[in-house]
Amino acid sequence: xxxxxxxxxxxxxxxxxxxxxxxxxxxxxxxxxxxxxxxxxxxxxxxxxxxxxxxxxxxxxxxxxxxxxxxxxxxxxxxxxxxxxxxxxxxxxxxxxxxxxxxx
Length: 104
Description:
mainly alpha, 4 helices, DUF2528, DUF2528 family protein
């Protein structure tokens, strides 16, 4: 993720954080509004990537309000509003070595 702080100001980061409940909790837990927003974004972007089997381009398209998509509470992620998703890697999230199958 790339952040252009001239565009995505601290005030705009607070707007994103405050859109969601528990904003104060996130600020206290993560130490800054930037960290809070980046962690929420990573969680949200990974869920989109995994659920729809998308690469970074596909995830960015899911945030594009001009393309009929958009994600509630989030700006586009193409850099136009100061945040750009550059890569997303879902490999290894569900490793078969971490799974156990038991007979019923």
